[in-house]
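Morning, I've got a small favour to ask if you have a moment. The fold is given in discrete form, as structure tokens running alongside the sequence. I'd be grateful if you could look everything over and explain what you see. No rush at all, and the record is pasted right below.
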Amino acid sequence: MTVQNEAILIEIDTILETRLGTVDLLNREWAEKLAMSEYRHRLSDDFNLFVPEIDMDLYKKTYAKRDWEVLAHSAPTEFSVDLTRILDELLFDPKRISPNATTEIHVNIYPYDLTDAEKIEMVQAIHEITATVFYIKLVNIPPYSITFETIKANNWVAIFAYDLNLILSNMITMESIKGKLRCNNVMLYTPHITFNFDELKKTVEETTAMGEKFEPFMHTSLLLAPFISLEFVSSEYYSLADFDKHEKTTRFEEEMYDETKPYVPPETTTKDQNND
């Protein structure tokens, strides 16, 4: 039986919260205010909607040239600490992954220019953050250069990206449409956000030919369905990880499956038991 090698592409900007890291590099007070706002449930990366004093022009220039210093200011995302569960669900889907496949993770570190020592440190950090047991390979590929040929050449069965417009810019072209190039069995996951909030507001006010409200995210997925399977994920997964929540979940699971002692529900204290 032939064993296939398949891979999952994950952008480093989905593992680390480099948006907030960039803001923190520019101004710690801006970052603290942004983190305390409704930012993690955002529909747009226009941070002025949450913190008016943020200089968005300066942010965009800095983010476009982000480097190791930005990474040093960036903490893990919700996606990174939940990656094991996400991959388990994906890998157990026979429609997506071959049951006999050997799967590895390709982490796209673009646009960061890392030394060999920094790359080793990065792989170690990703293993520690995500707790994944899969082999991790670092790649450096501009998202705008990715085509259907690139996907097939690397045997990517799923892609986790941040900027949808950027990764589609050289993928859905007239040439690819005419050539009938497609990867509709490949999953593309991006955040449930828009990069133009004003356009989003106009769009949601429109109606379809059937008189229904226009749902831009759903229609984008349907439009791309013949070429690639697009799924929008809550922006919460691309925001700072809630370690308090994960710590409570882990503690709950440990108590549930610790056979050396009876399980005590979190709301029941030792004092309550003694009173019984």
